[in-house]
């Protein structure tokens, strides 16, 4: 019997199980990985409403990471919501200290589907935040924003300029679920200058799901952990996510292969 690779999610806890840690671990389990999890936030929410977010102290996050790395070989990690770019940069440095070759898949969740703002920004902090984000880009393997998120990463640049800048530093998978046109068309921009379009399997619009972005990013992480190259991992993850989207008509999807 083949051992399952250990995959780690660092993200928030969603009591509904549709997003965050629970969605990630469900995805890992379904795709035959063993999911490990470190919590960054405790949220008060269901599948349609998020009213509060309590952040976990960095010292607790660090302690959990240190114990996990003592016990398990972790080569792939997916990161979701974190309090701010500064804390995220600290977390990434901890990961790289434990495993210098670890591949980090960052899903930059800036706002919940119910419009709860996770990263509050002030004009005084804007340049500082951008500096931390620039450092983060150099350390991660893949960034997976949707259209709403990529627009907010560099407010003084167009989407095209932002894409060119990010893909010049690291791999970029632009999720198409929030596109104004061609909904569901995803795009992969590699750091080596290659470009791929991943269209949905069917023309019909799949049923909307709470946490679908979390599922897609964690599915990419799982396939990478199984040794698939980046493009194939993204393609397979897209198909897996489509199965979750079409699993039922509620906002909470079912996970099964």
Characterize the structure shown.
Its EC number is 2.7.1.49. Pfam families: Phos_pyr_kin (PF08543). One of its GO terms (cellular component) is cytosol. The protein has 257 residues and is an alpha/beta fold. It has eight helices and nine strands. The protein has helices at 20-30, 58-71, 85-98, 123-139, 147-153, 159-167, 212-225, 230-245; strands at residues 6-13, 34-45, 50-55, 74-79, 103-106, 142-143, 171-174, 186-189, 195-198. It has a nine-stranded mixed beta sheet, sandwiched between helices. Helix 4 (123-139) links the parallel strand 5 (103-106) and strand 6 (142-143). It is globular, with a radius of gyration of 17 Å. The two termini are 19 Å apart.
Which helices and strands appear, and what pairs or packs with what?
Blueprint lengths: L5 E8 L6 H11 L3 E12 L4 E6 L2 H14 L2 E6 L5 H14 L4 E4 L16 H17 L2 E2 L3 H7 L5 H9 L3 E4 L11 E4 L5 E4 L13 H14 L4 H16 L12
Parallel strand pairs: 1-2, 1-4, 4-5, 5-6, 6-7
Antiparallel strand pairs: 2-3, 7-8, 8-9
User: Count the helices. How many?
Assistant: 8
CATH top level label: Alpha Beta
Mean pLDDT: 90
- pLDDT under 50 segments (min length 5)? none
**In percent terms, what proportion of residues is strand?**
15-25%
Basic shape: globular
Q: Approximately how much helix is present in the residues?
A: 25-40%
Q: Please, how many domains?
A: 1
Q: Which strand order spans the largest sheet, edge to edge or round the barrel?
A: 3-2-1-4-5-6-7-8-9
- Give me the strand/helix succession: EHEEHEHEHEHHEEEHH
Rg is 17 Å
Mind describing the biggest β-sheet?
9 strands, mixed
SS-based class: alpha/beta
User: How would you name the CATH homologous superfamily?
Assistant: Ribokinase
Protein name: hydroxymethylpyrimidine kinase
GO molecular function: hydroxymethylpyrimidine kinase activity; phosphomethylpyrimidine kinase activity
InterPro entries: HMP/HMP-P_kinase_dom, PM/HMP-P_kinase-1, Ribokinase-like
Domain Pyridoxamine kinase/Phosphomethylpyrimidine kinase: 14-249
